[in-house]
Amino acid sequence: STETDTLTWINWFCSLPGHEYFCEDFIEDDFNLTGLLQLVPFYKEAMEMILDVEAEEDEVHRVPDVSIVESSAELLYGLIHQRYILTRQGLQQMYAKFEASHFGTCPRVYCTQCKLVPCGRSDLPGVDTVKLFCPSCLDMYVPPSSRFQGVDGAFFGTTFPHMLFQTYPSPTNLPMPAPAPSDPSKREPTTPTTSLSKVYVPRIYGFKVSERARSGPRMQWMRMRPRTEGEIDWTDDHGVPMSAVEEDGKGGGGGGGEGALFEDDVEEEDDAEEEEEEEGG
To answer: What span, in angstroms and rounded, lies between the C-alpha atoms of 45 and 114?
Structure first.
């Protein structure tokens, strides 16, 4: 037989440009198929196309256009794929792709080329195209190639990346803990280790730009997620990461008057306010 004769519908679909993210598998069970009958038009015909089952003659006449069935088959396979990659076998296959950098690396500098996984912003089709999730900065990015703009994000869903890293909690590409200082006097045994997440600090002529400035950094604490049990306990007790409190103590917490450009300006305004309060008292 020729290569064309042995090419299944699933092989063909996964070989299309932009479909490299898909797992080339199909499991026909209740978990994968529940509720899809109401979402996919010509469900039976679409299922037969996916499984390479020859349609009956009366079904062929019932369908106004074969392109409609093809579109339904793509939608059906994508929604089944969303559920399949949450199964043990699907997670194993997707994690193997992740380990092989099949989905690319994070464009953020401080993520040091952390590997990405595909995800969606919604579990319903037609909302948005596929995105890429970074387990280091916990953010989503648009795929670098335009060929993925036609892939529905619902075919991967919102649950997959987080289920993957709950099942495989130690990605090999996440930043490793920094070694402890050799000088015991420089260690801080009473407080948790500083967060490993690196955050870009904007500067003008070497001075930190205040968060209150118009061009200042915004919501840096979101990058400062806890990495150790000590940091997690600290965050639970105080409501913010310890690293955010440390930065605030250095003048990096965004305090001070509105419009201050540099952190030094913030500190001077704080001192002036304290002097006014003392004189007023």
So the answer is: 42
